[in-house]
Amino acid sequence: MADRGRRRQLPSFALASLLALVPAGLPLGLGAETLRVPGAYPTIKAAVNRAVDGDTVLVEDGTYLENNIVLTKRIQVRSRNLFGAVIYGSPRTDDAIFAVRAPVRIEGFVLKGAGIAIEQRGSPDVRWEASDLLIADCNCGLFINDVAANVGSAEIRNIIIAGGHGSDVKGIATNDAHDLEVAGCLVLDCCQAFDGYDHLSFRVTESAAVDCRTSVLEGTVHRPIPPATSRIETGPGLPALRSGELRDPAKLARFMSFVRRAVLPARTAAGTSGNDKAARESVLALLAARIMERTGDHEAAAKRYEAARAAAERAGSSEFVWQALWGQARVAGAAGDIQKALASYDRALGYLESWMPRVPRGLTRIEFMKDKAPAFEALAGLLLEKHRTDPSKGCDELAFNCAEAYKFLSRSWPSRD
Predict the structure, then answer these.
(1) Cβ-contact 123, 98 below 8 angstroms
(2) What is the pLDDT of residues 117-137, one digit of tens each?
(3) What are the beta bridge partners of residue 78?
């Protein structure tokens, strides 16, 4: 690890001359370093706090429990492999995983369980970028939210946002912002997919909303002072779909083709890894399986979940393996195959138990387990149903053991890494 205290400094007049040649939105690259997590720094926040303008914080695959990572330097923060680093945040409404206050780039992460995944607030009027993200179970995905002025700009592209379970879950939103450019994004299960108020520009292209209460909401509580507006431009149109509309295999195929082309395009640049390709395949299969599950095509959904699991294994993604195994268990139960469902839940929860020692300690470990709770509840319900039909099998005791296992796994558990 480099000694930051001895980094060579350019004379101030020379530095000023060089700065004048650098575009405002790009990292400086003067003596830039790569700060590796967890190799050189134990947490993402520790590496970000140590970084200086032009550096890259590179995060290895794994599960991270962090929140309120404040970005105040012109840096890049990215997952080493696409969707390889999974960050669970705090569900408190005002807590964000990333708080943006500088022209940064954020790339490649899975962000889960936070009040807000990424928020720009209390920031200078800078422009930042976010791409290749999967955001799930957050009250808001991305939010430019200044205190009172039209401050803050972002370019958002190639992001999937799957909403949480609150009464006012937003995908991408503004509240007193300068401008927001959104391209190639998919928003699912949100109250509002795109929510805008008091900005100078909010433009959405090549994007879609699925199973959202409202695809576009333009705030009308107060009228912005021109040239500010609450209008959201959607170009030639913003598809707003329901899962039921995709029951037709031809319509689903067209939708998935759109996702492959616009939202999760295949990368051909040098440096794209086999892990990246496998992670992309896994997410595409999980998305298709999720839609098939909702439309009641359990057999097709089970096959897609299995494809997602196989791809996730190749990518080395514990998060996606878990999601695929849990999905297989759900569709088996929905199809009425109790024995297969019990076996599938046992397999999924066995995998979770083997994964837990690699999950670090932290307050947001509670949120990590929160989205696993429905699997334990479903298994306990199946066991109790089986007990009612055949008390001799002792399934009531197994249901009790299932509840105890959830309590045990929810406790703080030191990492073995």
Answers:
(1) no
(2) 999 999 999 999 999 999 999
(3) 58, 107
Which pLDDT does position 78 carry in this prediction? 97
Distance CA(187)–CA(185), nearest Å, equals 7
The bridge status of strand 34-37 relative to strand 56-59 is parallel
User: End-to-end alpha-carbon separation of the chain, Å?
Assistant: 20
Confidence class for position 82, pLDDT limits 50, 70, 90: very high
Burial class (CB in 10 A: 0-12, 13-18, 19+), 229: buried
Q: Tens digits of per-residue pLDDT, 18-55?
A: 444 444 545 455 568 999 999 999 999 999 999 999 99
Quick one: 363 exposed, middle or buried, by C-beta within 10 A (0-12, 13-18, 19+)? exposed
3-state SS, residue 97: strand
Q: Which amino acid is it at 61?
A: D
Residue 408 to residue 386: CA distance in whole angstroms? 24
Cβ(347)–Cβ(325) below 8 Å: yes
The beta strand positions in 235-291, using DSSP E, are 240-241
Q: What is the dihedral of CA 111, 113, 114, 119, to 10 degrees?
A: 30
Sign of CA dihedral 311, 118, 256, 296: positive
State how far the Cα of 60 lies from the Cα of 396, in Å rounded to an integer: 42
Tokens of 313: 């294994």
b/e for 321-354, b at 16 or more Cβ within 10 A?
bbbbbbbbbbbbbeeeeeebbbebbeebbebbee
Global pTM value: 0.89
Strand order across the beta sheet in which 192-196 lies: 69-71, 96-100, 116-120, 140-145, 170-175, 192-196, 214-218
Total residues belonging to the chain: 417
The distance between the two most distant Cα atoms of the chain, rounded to a whole number of Å, is 85
**What is the three-state SS of 11-22?**
CHHHHHHHHCCC
Beta-bridge partner residues of 34: 56
Say whether 409 sits in a helix, a strand or coil: helix
